Write a sequence for this structure.
């Protein structure tokens, strides 16, 4: 006879697992991406914010084209362009407070730059010089993350720890649609919802995970719908509408800061350039598709709104473009300077306290470099 079979044994009633813990209806995203530009809602947008977004978009586009050119000149090893996605990049950086944290992916160098990171430092990883070229604590920007979606659990951990300490901090984690197919994405969302961590997840759905279209990754109605499975709100927004992205992300940040927990935002956008300079995008998409998205360019949409409302004239457009050119020229000049690299820096910042094995490797490299220098000196 088992304990449960004994007379008078405690028999707890199982919980009604089939019932939802919360009403799913408020968590579901809208049927169509939320828009501001070209709608009556645009009249309520702050004109100064719209002008700031525009200036940053123009500068961001020029940053992308300049960085792409640097790969062709051998000054960058690789560059994942965010051309066409600048509205997501700019809005993500601008909605955060000074104490908040940004967790970017490898495609999000523009967001890091708008957040305040030096543009050359932001490109250092892609140059192959350092694992990250900047101090993450200075501007509260985590290192650019090349493994897909591994930055998401990091964002949740930081946000959860900040809440436990009583710090007023929100983490905004950026990821592409391809990253949503990784286990890290699901683990991060589950932990964030269970802990009610102050995190905002921004999925930039740009249509392709390298060459794999979204339809071959998921059968969900939208990526934003995945939020309800974890118990958090899902928002669907037009990722080329800078005002809409800023508004939706701003709402999500305030929701998280107020103790409401995480939000999953899917921004529907398009990657105009190839995955990286090493990718041949003509293998999996045609020019007609790209041109159709160019008509929905984030700069074009915002410029049309601003000029139509008399908030931007030709002089303002020229000023924004000139600022972008000056920015690109300064970046180009600095990137054309050969960096002074020390191979021994390979061992810097790996651990707070270097391990014995790392110390052995460091001394081995030091000996090899010294021997090489002596041999070079003897040949002279």
């Amino acid at each position: 006879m088992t304990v449960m079979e004994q007379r008078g044994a405690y028999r707890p009633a199982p919980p009604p697992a089939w019932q939802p813990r919360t009403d799913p209806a408020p968590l579901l995203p809208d049927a169509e991406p939320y828009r501001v530009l070209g709608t009556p809602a645009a009249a309520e947008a702050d004109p100064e914010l719209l002008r700031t977004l525009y200036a940053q978009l123009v500068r961001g586009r020029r940053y992308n084209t300049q960085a792409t050119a640097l790969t062709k000149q051998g000054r960058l090893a690789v560059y994942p362009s965010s051309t066409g996605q600048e509205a997501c990049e700019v809005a993500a950086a601008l909605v955060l407070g000074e104490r908040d944290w940004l967790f970017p992916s490898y495609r999000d160098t523009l967001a890091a730059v708008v957040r305040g990171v030096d543009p050359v430092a932001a490109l250092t990883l892609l140059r192959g010089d350092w694992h990250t070229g900047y101090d993450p604590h200075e501007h509260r920007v985590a290192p650019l993350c090349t493994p897909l979606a591994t930055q998401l659990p990091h964002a949740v951990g930081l946000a959860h720890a900040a809440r436990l300490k009583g710090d007023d901090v929100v983490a905004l984690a950026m990821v592409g649609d391809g990253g949503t197919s990784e286990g890290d994405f699901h683990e991060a969302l589950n932990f964030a919802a269970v802990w009610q961590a102050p995190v905002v997840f921004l999925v930039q759905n740009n249509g392709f995970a390298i060459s794999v279209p979204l339809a071959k990754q998921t059968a969900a109605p939208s990526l934003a719908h995945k939020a309800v499975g974890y118990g958090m709100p899902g928002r669907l927004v037009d990722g080329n509408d800078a005002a809409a992205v800023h508004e939706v992300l701003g709402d999500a940040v305030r929701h998280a800061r107020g103790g409401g927990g995480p939000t999953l935002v899917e921004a529907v956008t398009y990657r105009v350039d190839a995955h990286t300079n090493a990718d041949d995008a003509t293998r999996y998409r045609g020019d007609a598709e790209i041109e159709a998205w160019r008509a929905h360019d984030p700069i074009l949409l915002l410029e049309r709104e601003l000029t139509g409302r008399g908030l931007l004239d030709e002089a303002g457009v020229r000023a924004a473009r000139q600022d972008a050119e000056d920015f690109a020229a300064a970046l180009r000049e600095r990137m054309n300077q050969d960096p002074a690299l020390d191979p021994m820096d390979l061992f810097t910042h790996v651990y707070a306290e270097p391990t014995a094995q790392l110390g052995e490797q460091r001394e081995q490299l030091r000996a090899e470099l010294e021997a090489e220098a002596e041999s070079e000196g003897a040949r002279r």
Observations:
- DSSP finds 13 helices and seven strands in the chain.
- The longest helix spans residues 47-72.
- The mean pLDDT is 93.
